[in-house]
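Need residues for this backbone.
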């Protein structure tokens, strides 16, 4: 998504590893040798590091392989380089995009090397959250104007005497530092290192019933394990986040989109048709995500389990 990025290459054909990276290397040049292969019944999917996006790819990959007989490769790269890779045919599709207007202008409207693949069916939202047990005890903490009153309780060894606002990976592109500065909040953004590390820290705080303030997002399976309540930031309005240095508003609600390489969209046959029709609900995505991240099923096993119980949903994607 525009707010989250990661790096690392997922190696191996017909496999999808649950990874959380925190490096900064651009691995796009090492992407699949099968992408955009003329006449070959192969597909390469770009997979993001967060588990919801991995759930999309796991199900798409499972159906492409087991229902349509394709060979599927997956490549994990930063979100911006993924657009470059998609434009150049190194990957065939991005299954979950949180909005990249500059790339849309460059590749979809100007170069016409990428085409929209349709709505994923899931609406994404990023925000600041506190544990619900703390919000119930201190209801006013859910208004950003009151956050400074709780800064001391949110302090950690890493936050330098200020309250801690926990983010994920340093490579995530967020508005949080600007928001802290522009809203004059006595908080320090502290990076957990990755989505996985952030989840581990949230679970630990919750186990000890400690207060915490964290950047987090929906859809996300963790809400089922650690109930969290959103802090109301100044209302989002179109354009309020146009200048990254001056942002002083909440994150938007974003209908998540798919994008396909233009040549693949035209010549990708049944695979392209399936990916265009792939549309499911937040509940579907969370169901698969929970199996992968919490129940420790392999992505393929999670996808099979979901497919076995939701045949009426995915059959429509094959018609």
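Answer:
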């Amino acid at each position: 998504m525009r707010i989250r990025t990661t790096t690392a290459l997922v190696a191996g054909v017909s496999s999808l590893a649950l990874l959380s990276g925190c490096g900064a290397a651009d691995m796009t040049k090492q992407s699949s040798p099968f992408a955009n292969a003329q006449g070959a019944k192969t597909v390469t999917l770009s997979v993001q590091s967060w588990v919801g996006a991995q759930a999309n790819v796991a199900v798409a990959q499972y159906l492409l392989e087991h229902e349509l007989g394709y060979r599927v490769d997956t490549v994990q790269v930063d979100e911006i380089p993924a657009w470059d890779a998609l434009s150049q045919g190194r990957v065939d599709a991005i299954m979950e995009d949180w909005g990249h207007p500059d790339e849309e202008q460059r590749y979809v409207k100007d170069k016409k090397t990428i085409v929209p693949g349709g709505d994923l069916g899931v609406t994404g939202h990023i925000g600041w959250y506190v544990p619900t047990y703390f919000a119930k005890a201190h209801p006013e903490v859910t208004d950003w104007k009151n956050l400074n009153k709780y800064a001391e309780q949110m302090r950690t060894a890493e936050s330098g005497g200020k309250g801690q606002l926990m983010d994920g990976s340093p490579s995530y592109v967020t508005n949080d530092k600007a928001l802290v500065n522009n809203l004059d909040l006595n908080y320090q953004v502290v990076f957990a290192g990755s989505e996985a590390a952030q989840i581990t820290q949230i679970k630990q705080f919750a186990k000890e019933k400690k207060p915490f303030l964290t950047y987090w997002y929906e859809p996300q399976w963790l809400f089922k394990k650690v109930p969290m309540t959103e802090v109301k930031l100044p209302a989002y309005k179109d354009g309020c986040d146009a200048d990254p240095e001056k942002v002083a508003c909440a994150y938007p609600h974003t209908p998540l989109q798919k994008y396909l390489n233009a040549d693949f969209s035209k010549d990708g046959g049944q695979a392209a048709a399936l990916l265009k029709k792939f549309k499911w609900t937040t509940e579907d995505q969370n169901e698969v995500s929970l199996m992968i991240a919490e129940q420790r099923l392999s992505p393929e096993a999670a996808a099979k389990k979901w497919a076995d119980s939701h045949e009426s949903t995915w059959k429509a994607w094959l018609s």
